[in-house]
Write a structure and sequence with these properties.
Strand 2 (about 170) and strand 3 (about 170-175) form a beta hairpin. This protein has one domain. It has helices spanning about 1-10, 15-35, 40-65, 75-90, 100-125, 130-150, 160-165, 175-190, 195-205, 205-210, 215-240, 255-265, 275-295, 300-330, and strands at about 155, 170, 170-175, 245. It is about 75% helix and about 0% strand. The chain is mainly α and about 325 residues long. Pfam families: BPD_transp_2. Keywords: Cell inner membrane, Cell membrane, Membrane, Transmembrane, Transmembrane helix, Transport.
Length: about 325
Amino acid sequence: MNSVATRIKDLLGPEIAGPGFAFLAVMLFFGFASPQFLSEATFGSVAFQLPELGLLTLAMLLPVLTGGLNLAITFTANIAGLTVAWVLQANGGVDAGIAWFALGCVLAVAVGAATGVVMGLVIAYTRAHPILVSLSMMIFVRGLGEFLTRGGDVSGFPAFLQPIGHGSILGFPIPLLIFIACVLLWHVLLTRMKLGFNTYMIGSNIEAARYSGVNTRKVIVLVYTLSGAMCAVAGIIMLARFNSVRVGHGESYLLITVLACFLGGVNPFGGFGRVIPVFVALVVLQLLSSGLNLMGANQHLATAVWGILLIAVMILRWLAAQLMILNRRKG
């Protein structure tokens, strides 16, 4: 029994305490406040809405763990979605075959990865701040997308895309299954692979990692490449969900991905954080949004509450750190 408990503790880490407490608080509050909250419809809605935000959060997670940031995630996702859309439009539109969709997905992932490669190379070799580099990429990708689409939507896709965005397997939404697979992939990468270990080292102290023999430039480029590739997966899911692509889709998700990372116990300066607590934090944010909607609150209020929650998380973290310092001094 102790070994099982130890394994669970090692899997989740101490970071699970914050999102776990928030999950219980949200469930109890809205469970009492709204009779419809604890229903199949609510959890079904969360299951369909979670994946696109979740995938973008995974794209944000790796750069944050290195002490960086990727502000271009939403526009990278949209330019990747536009890549798939253009391949389909150029080869029959609504009559395009699955092979063309598969080719579009491959090209979309390549486009997403390419944006990450460029950012990673600039950050690694010029030591420019990740915020400035990713902001520049965000502006470039947004401008390029608006130029190519003239600010409009691209729509008219084959019917077989509908199940990818809205279908289910054994009662589980297909987008959710894709997201869970990506969560497991990221978990394995960070806990079982050398790249994950080096990512934590760079986030903790990049100079110490360099002196330890870690090729920090290579790791940073790989981290941003994987971040861009994950953005592309999110873009493909968004295309299937909305049955259209627009450069501005999911613009509001950017800051929410940062909130999810911090609520999930990820250190904003890098070096510490796990995937599973971030997954729980995403569930909390979606349940919070659904609960407010059931109570008749405007979606903008939910966004405001997310902002307040981020401030509260920062304050609670500071208080926890001060409490630990006091306990050490007493000990």
